[in-house]
Structures are given as structure tokens and as C-alpha cells.
Write a structure and sequence with these properties.
The chain is built from 6 helices and 6 strands. The protein has about 140 residues and is α/β, with parallel strands linked by helices. The chain has 2 domains: about 1-95, Rossmann fold (3-Layer(aba) Sandwich); about 100-145, no CATH class. It is globular, with a radius of gyration of 16 Å.
Length: about 140
């Protein structure tokens, strides 16, 4: 879980509902205090889950099949997800991933207009517009629905 706020906590609850066999959750946040609060709250609510904190987001990419990203970042800073075991990224905050990362992935969106909006991601406008165009049927790499 990259970002230890309310959105990722709710996402964690949803993921544990979908996949009750999840045994371990690793969290990372720019605020160590916020990460510690997330872990304490998680341990209280999901007692069977082993929680761990890491200081660097790269450790998440190296050590997990699924990463949920929900931050308040204003500019992209994740320019490479590394060569770890990561297979799925739930990117809930739109601004963390560099355009090159987005364009290199198979993207599934639930609201094409939202992810391709000009006012949302000025620094990644071409990447997000490419997702919107692709979702309109110009590329098989992106699905919307």
C-alpha cells in the first residue's frame, strides 16, 4: 500500500474481502507517523494480517504482486516499477506514475474522461490523453468499462 490514508485503508478492506487468503500487507508513506498509524489501525481491524512498513516505495515494487497507490502527489515520481514480482497496480490517485510507466502498461480505467482530462495531469497530458484515445477504440492495449 503506497499512501497510508483513508482511501488505501478502505481499499485494503475491500481487497481482504475479495482475497481473504492475503496474509501480509506492506505499507509505505512519506510520513512515517502516518504509516505507523495505518499499521496500528490495520492490526486492530485485521488481526490475522502481518503488517510491515518500508521507507522506500521501490521495496513495494520488489516485494509484491499487487500494489495499491493512493497519495496526494501533485507530480509523477514513480518512473520505474522495477523488475520485481509486481503484476497489478491499483493507481487511485492519478499523479504518481510517470507517463512512460503508464504507456508501458496494459491500462484498465473506469472513467475515460476522468483519466484523460486536460486539467488533471498537466505534466502527463500526452500519456493520459493517449489512454483516453486508446479507450475510444484506437488501440487494443487499453480497456474502459
Amino acid at each position: 500500500m503506497l499512501g497510508c490514508g483513508a482511501i488505501n485503508f478502505a481499499t485494503l478492506g475491500f481487497l481482504l474481502h475479495l482475497w481473504p487468503r492475503i496474509e501480509r500487507v506492506v505499507v509505505c508513506d512519506v510520513s512515517g507517523d502516518r504509516a505507523a498509524r495505518f499499521v496500528a489501525r490495520g492490526r486492530a481491524r485485521f488481526a490475522r494480517i502481518a503488517f510491515a512498513m518500508v521507507d522506500d516505495w521501490r521495496a513495494l515494487a520488489a516485494d509484491g504482486e499487487l500494489v495499491s497507490i493512493a497519495t496526494t502527489a501533485m507530480t509523477p515520481y514513480l518512473d520505474d516499477l522495477g523488475g520485481g514480482s509486481i503484476r497489478t497496480v491499483l493507481h487511485l490517485s492519478l499523479r504518481d506514475l510517470a507517463p512512460t510507466v503508464v504507456l508501458a502498461a496494459d491500462n484498465v480505467v473506469d472513467d475515460v474522461d476522468h483519466v484523460s482530462g486536460r486539467d488533471l495531469v498537466a505534466s502527463g497530458r500526452s500519456a493520459w490523453s493517449a489512454i483516453g484515445a486508446s479507450s475510444a477504440g484506437r488501440s487494443p492495449d487499453v480497456l474502459a468499462g
